[in-house]
């Protein structure tokens, strides 16, 4: 929804509109223009993923719908057309990355959780290339628990005891090993290793007691350096098989960090100010505390107590010449002393009362020495859009402003007070939850209860401001008896796009602030924002023109591009050919421009496709260097959501794992789910493969004749080496011919790419070759079909085995390239029992998933699906967006008997 600039009513002052006081030569006008230019030049994108469940088990599928919006307009983004989604394990290693095409900021995909994965705290991260310019703080990055029972023999449960010893932090970890039924593994050998911040701290071995337990003592002598880590425990089973378990060490400390945040930024002598408190324990979670504020003479000024997740606030009026400390009492009974920020002798206090559901009441208070020093300016902006700006006279010490929330978009509003010199002197974040930019969903035809396998046929109507809207919605339906909802921490479109995507730090239980809109919840949300010292727009950077360089362009389509050079100079009008024989033959060509640049744009391809780029000058000279444009991958940062990390994942998810095991076992019986077969350790003396990285379709090394890199060490060229060495092969004009075939030239396969029979053997530098396999006999060539009729030569290069840039360069004028293509999205299976009855039990944990339900011009959309064989309370979660960026979320339940 587009809104015009708000004109504020100011108590005891005249009313100024934006245009009323700003002239073309006003320096503050220039500052606001800089903000506008910044917002246009550096538009920000936000990503949210709607997940079908709050947690998973190995064997499950993660189904998700992605919503990408332009933060300035809140509308679905048209800037980027490609989204990256990653599954990251506890080692901060990417286990799977998929690349998805987007249309109007919408796409969807899935991850299959194979039994090669271990249980643990995984992350789902999503971003566009354009978002990388702003940094990973803006990415969607959610921690999810993945349990493992179906493909797991050993379960662990860890209990930690914390203490201090000679300024070192000590952790005594008791680890219990048991099977899925809780029976302990007694008298088993366990080897363990402890790492903190990737550095080995200690290692040892122990034997489990009758309860299946061992004790691991961790001594952290450098607590300022090492904060967290892991225990890698290897247990030896009765059959001598070993099982490795990785146990997180979230912290080595029981310390609680307490911070104080003056509203607006500073305490100022003689001016009453709200001070927010934030207490976080070493596990990253809020911990409620109480305490007293004392002045420098030891007099008690006030008492305080946090109200929710270690956050709260109090009012302090610092007296001139006084300093203040807080005596904080922790839950364990201990007390710590913390100095409050030192009050400034002169300055401003910006105070906002945001607990009223209809308006924000804003007060600006000045010390007497800054009064009558020119006009102040108060600006409220949301993601670069200014929603009000007004001048404030400095003739009075107290100025009051009232702003109706209905004129603001939902989300975080940044209020900044500027001095007469146009410098930011106080700042405050406030949250607005406006019903005008929400989509109302009304569900029809839904009964209160259904039978097992009953057909659910419902309609929902989407409206915005009482008018029907066309929108894209995602629907996830689960049985709460199998999947207990995580109400305060599950994936939520409102929480993500309106709150956490604009905050850098970890937010504990973010959904809590959206479950109710009462005074208590609004106060708790206001305390949260008072403790956030970071925001998207930094005014000092705007003032000083300190803008980040654009390192990553917004991706509109898949492309393969690069530069041609010869002798260090660009090749103009060079002919470039791109071809591939993966999934059918593909070929296209183009010419390089005046800078030697070439570009194959808008070429859609899927994963695991290999291309060959071949170039020649306009005079058919092949001695050209091809440099492809390869964007480096995004590094994996340390998980910021430390509070969401669970030490005992399997223990926490045990009810869900017991339920999912039944489903997986049934799927396995029906041949719909494969389990990896783990063999006992067998010592085998392996015969070395002469062509280990070969793409030979018969299998690496299975050929009539094999040449290795060692064989070619003294060779001048490949054609000269092969001449006379291989029976039935003759070399003519740089090509190989089989005397036993039909007289045609042999096909060349280079690093898995079929180059055809016109390829010259000496187009490859012989020193770059790792192996050459000659296929002559019908037994080896038959697998290549008609392409192998004259024989095949499989060439594997040293660099072709895999490089960081994912492409291998050959001299002259040839490059093979395997770029990341689009993921082929799978479809969620939803049975139709009226058409295809099935007597086998239906134990699905996700009852229904549809990532793209579209409402029509009347705002209506239809859902039709069948319940499972499990009774319980079924939960429907509908989320979505319309073209104007209005958001929807609705949760409905019904019973299955």
UniProtKB/TrEMBL annotation:
Keywords: Receptor, Signal. Residues 706-792 form the TonB-dependent receptor plug domain. The keyword Signal applies. Pfam families: Plug. Residues 1-20 form the signal peptide. This is TonB-dependent receptor plug domain-containing protein.
